[in-house]
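dude i think i finally got it to work??
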Amino acid sequence: MVRVHLHIGSAVGALDEYVQARTFVREVVDDSGSSFSWGMRVLPRRRRRAIYAVYTFARLVDNVADGPGAPQAKQRALSEWRREVDRLFAGVPQHPVTLALKDGIHEFGLPKEEFHALISGMERDAQGRVRIKTTGELFRYCRQVAGSVGVLCIHIFGLSQPPGRRFALALGNAFQLTNILRDVQEDLGLDRLYLPQDLLARYGAWDEQVTGLLERPGVAPACAALAQTALHQFAEAKRYMQELPWWRTRPPALMKVIYEDTLRCLMAHGWRRWDRGVRPSAARRVWLILRDGLR
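look at this
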């Protein structure tokens, strides 16, 4: 872990490190090419800084889970991130991203347990082999890796009370289910299967041996069913969003436009051509935002 040590007693040194930390998280977001950055650019500066820091934290712990290395080494690294979260809330962060988070923790009341929930989800991914037994287990995983980020973001938007929290959780589910459906082949290459076994079994596609899974006839209807679940979550998010001030929900609304378009493209392509990537181009993202996101 890269560490940033504050120069005790030096206001100039501390200021420099805050500037460097903010630059660090902004560069991570800019380099990501993520749909996330499209929605967050419209935020006022202080909220944008906080949201960029949350995104960067999520990106760094995700990199641990998805990066090279033995599972034991990844678990140790994630345990160190847990300790760093504890240091952050104790007021003594040592990493650029947690230093960048420090102001947002106090200004927006970001809950410590959501950072720990995100790490818990990544600890599951870091085990290497992933199998999800039930749809309920899948939703618990979505709550950890996506809902946690959604709840942190909703605090920054100023919508931490219902229905803002329900909006964040529904949208987090929809986003994560879309990611799972988009990345089925890639995840299988890492020995990860997020399609739940009970859903696959319903369509006669489950077998302990996942070799050749994507060629089984039951996989397509199982994916189609999960896509319908994701659409329902998008609809739930829209319903809650209509109860909230539009100017507060504008950033996630822009992300929703892009993610929902990705899901509908996946559905239109069907569940046979796993080698065909479905990621909206930058030009299409701009067009989608102009068409729907700024209404």
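Confidence is low (pLDDT under 50) at residues 1-13, 282-290.
im so relieved honestly
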